[in-house]
Design brief:
Elements lengths: L2 H18 L3 E5 H14 L5 E6 L6 H9 L3 E4 L2 H9 L7 E3 L6 H9 L3 E4 L2 H9 L9 E7 L20 E2 L3 H10 L4 E5 L9 H22 L3 E5 L17 H19 L5 E4 L3 H4 L3 E12 L3 E5 L8 H4 L7 E2 L8 E7 L8 E9 L6 E5 L19 E5 L5 E5 L4 H5 L16 H11 L2
Parallel strand pairs: 1-17, 2-3, 2-10, 3-4, 4-5, 5-6, 6-7, 6-8, 8-9, 9-10, 12-14
Antiparallel strand pairs: 1-11, 11-12, 11-16, 13-16, 14-15, 17-18
Bound molecules: pyridoxal-5'-phosphate.
């Protein structure tokens, strides 16, 4: 949590806890706006657009804020498309980066004239079949899977094991198929970095795209006009990590692109990102109250939030969220595990954390929950997702999503119009009927 966010949160925290009750995620409008402005500033002067990854924080109040900074939206499902529309996104304000995409999803993306990011050649065949809505795509982006990467960069994944993207050896075929469908303008997308803190990891993404753009030109004659570097720019979840150097990335991309365009006599491609975490991650905090202080084989602090509010620590073994006790100054320190109430031993926000002594009713802050936090929560055990609040720039705190409720939400799918298909006629009975009607 930045010093600025901490200083804006301090004066409103007690009132917010008393008024709204814990647990809740609270997002900082000022911090988000500053990051948006910084992002736009770093890439200004070149053709550029950020398409916020809606999956990171699909809340209309925050999305409207981002759209106000000129951001588009990267969507991967029908509800995300709908949210982007509600936030004011139109046409190419929306990238549709889905995978294992259905006909229904493609039709919805086309109906909104979104920029479709094709994940597989099977999707191109489906696009050809679409008859509803406006005509075919004039512009299409192809998501590529470069296969095994060299080196041991810890921020890069293993694309050869990932289900995403068109493998290199199918790329020229995919371009030809798309051209036959009437596509005139092409983009390339790949995302190999995750929570990258090193500029070189993201530059690597650009290099992969440039190499594949060469390949496409050599094999099909098509010029790639747009490069989408996906998400994956990281944030320092641990206090000893250094923030990502975005201005250094801006400089590195400019240098690479200048060399590339000059060497091949090309026009400068539009550069896009689908950042989620970098934009909102540090500007969210999960506020939770201590329910129990427990001494077992280990020392536990049990809180009123769990994996329904934040999955990352339970889901990813290396995920870390810093935890602080805002009202614990001057108390002796204890080493504890901070846990939720799920019947899952992975339901832990932190292990071996040094925190001031806390007891029932004390409040803890779980930092950096502004991306892939609330959105990833799940309702196992009937533990429901908490509310979301927005700390406005004027210091007011606004409810931007209510907490889920048992009757309204959790049991809602148990109320339905009765429906049943009859049991099949037993085979023996069918034979008996045939015999009875035989002449
Ligand atoms: C296709 C795609 N784009 C963008 C993102 C956003 O990544 P991040 O929030 O790490 O920037 C993701 C994350 O899962 C993704 O799958």
């Amino acid at each position: 949590m930045s010093a600025g966010f901490a200083s804006r949160l301090r004066p409103v925290l007690r009132d917010a806890v008393e008024h709204f009750g814990t647990p809740f995620h609270l997002y900082d409008e000022t911090g988000i706006s500053e990051t948006c402005a910084h992002f736009n500033d770093v890439f200004s002067g070149m053709p550029f657009r950020e398409y916020f990854a809606v999956k990171a924080l699909p809340n209309p109040a925050v999305m409207s804020l981002l759209h106000g900074h000129g951001f588009g939206f990267d969507c991967s499902s029908l509800p995300e498309l709908a949210l982007a529309g509600q936030a004011g996104a139109r046409g190419h304000d929306v990238f549709f980066t889905s995978n294992n995409t259905s006909r229904e999803e493609l039709a919805a993306a086309r109906a909104r004239s979104a920029l479709i990011n094709v994940d597989d050649v099977a999707v191109l065949a489906k696009l050809a079949d679409l008859t509803d809505g406006p005509g075919g795509e004039d512009t299409l982006c192809l998501r590529i899977n470069p296969g095994a990467l060299e080196g041991d960069d810890p921020f890069l994944g293993s694309p050869e094991h990932a289900k995403f993207g068109i493998p290199t050896h199918q790329l020229a075929h995919a371009v030809t198929m798309a051209r036959d469908l009437g596509v005139r303008h092409f983009g390339l997308h790949t995302m190999v970095a995750s929570n990258a803190l090193a500029v070189s990891s993201v530059v690597r993404t650009l290099d992969i795209l440039l190499r594949h753009a060469e390949l496409v030109r050599d094999e099909t004659g098509v010029e790639i006009e747009l490069l989408n570097l996906g998400g994956g720019i990281g944030i320092p979840y641990r206090p000893d990590e250094r923030p990502f150097d975005l201005p250094a990335l801006g400089r590195a991309l400019r240098r690479r692109l200048a060399d590339w365009t000059r060497a091949g006599a090309r026009t400068w491609p539009v550069i896009c990102f689908e950042s989620g975490r970098y934009i909102t991650g540090p500007h969210g905090v999960l506020v939770t109250s201590v329910v129990n202080r427990m001494s077992k084989w280990r020392e536990y602090v049990g809180v009123d939030a769990g994996m329904s509010a934040l999955m990352r620590p339970g889901l990813y073994p290396t995920a870390y969220h810093h935890i602080t006790a805002p009202w614990g100054d001057g108390r002796p320190s204890r080493t504890v595990d901070v846990v939720g109430s799920l019947c899952e031993n992975s339901d832990k926000f932190g292990i071996d954390r040094h925190l001031p002594e806390v007891d029932e009713g004390d409040v803890l802050l779980v930092h950096d929950t502004g991306a892939h936090g609330h959105a990833m929560g799940y309702t196992y055990n009937g533990r429901m997702r908490p509310k979301e609040l927005l700390l406005r720039a004027d210091g007011s705190v606004e409810l931007i999503r209510r907490a889920e409720e048992q009757e309204l939400d959790h049991f809602a799918t148990l109320r339905f119009v009765p429906d049943r298909i009859p049991a099949p006629v037993p085979a023996a009975h069918a034979v008996h009927l045939r015999e009875a009607t035989a002449p």
